[in-house]
Amino acid sequence: MDRDPRCRAWARWKYCTHQRYKNMMMQACRRSCAFCVAETHDCKDRVKSRCPRLKEEGYCESTKPDERLSMRSMCARTCNFCRKIETVEVTKPDRRSHCVDTFKACFGWSRLGYCSSNNRERFMREYCKRSCNLCSSIDPEYTNEKCLDNDIVCEALKAQGYCELEDKKKIMAFNCKRTCNLCRRRVGEPIV
């Protein structure tokens, strides 16, 4: 089951396999990422004639959620999806990363008690460190409160070159300031 209405879009943007977002996607978007356990009692292939070839071509191990869901449906037996609990490598966030909030809304969420909420605590610890007071010290590079990203997709957009595209700079400056290094510096502040 997906816990966020944006899961399908995030899955299309390959967040299910992206190192930075995989933890969040495991928690919030299990269905869209095809991380759910197969619940089938009658383990069979629906398209018997095509399944061996599809397996040979690597579709059973596909990291693309849409292909994975199709293979679960069409070739459950050939791909060994029956009553199998899937293990997915989950990477821990880099502990050396800056202690910042990823979203502008983090402060508001922390005031609503999300830092200690059972179903939101893990997300808040990863994406709202500063607002949840999880910083041992605050990196001076990121002390500008207004220099935050508005959306979780910024890293993916940067990887696709959106920060450098002239026709995208305005929207990226609004939504992804921190990721694209588009924050305004204070007068006299050195450019790093």
Automatic annotation (TrEMBL):
<dbReference type="Pfam" id="PF01549">
    <property type="entry name" value="ShK"/>
</dbReference>
<feature type="domain" description="ShKT">
    <location>
        <begin position="43"/>
        <end position="82"/>
    </location>
</feature>
<keyword id="KW-0800">Toxin</keyword>
<dbReference type="GO" id="GO:0090729">
    <property type="term" value="F:toxin activity"/>
</dbReference>
<protein>
    <recommendedName>
        <fullName>ShKT domain-containing protein</fullName>
    </recommendedName>
</protein>
<feature type="domain" description="ShKT">
    <location>
        <begin position="99"/>
        <end position="135"/>
    </location>
</feature>
<feature type="domain" description="ShKT">
    <location>
        <begin position="147"/>
        <end position="183"/>
    </location>
</feature>
<dbReference type="InterPro" id="IPR003582">
    <property type="entry name" value="ShKT_dom"/>
</dbReference>
